[in-house]
Write a structure and sequence with these properties.
The chain is mainly α. It is about 70% helix and about 0% strand. α2 runs antiparallel to α3 and α3 packs across α4.
């Protein structure tokens, strides 16, 4: 299975897990699906706005900047 398929399956089982949504967003972003990535990031942020990685990624999207992970 690809990472995206695995993450979609995991999200179905654990829909309130912000990290799964975040990793899904990152995987979608890496393959160029920026709209899907933004929607998933927005959802991850709504589940846990205090998560530093999610907040950084979400803020970059909102400010039309390139989201990056360190």
């Amino acid at each position: 299975k690809t990472a995206i398929v695995f993450l979609k399956d995991a999200i179905k089982k654990f829909p309130n897990n912000p990290k799964l949504w975040f990793y899904f967003a990152f995987a979608e972003y890496k393959i160029g699906n920026k709209k899907t990535a933004f929607e998933a990031t927005k959802h991850a942020y709504s589940l846990n706005p205090e998560d530093k990685e999610v907040k950084k990624f979400y803020t970059a999207f909102v400010n039309n900047k390139e989201p990056k992970l360190e």
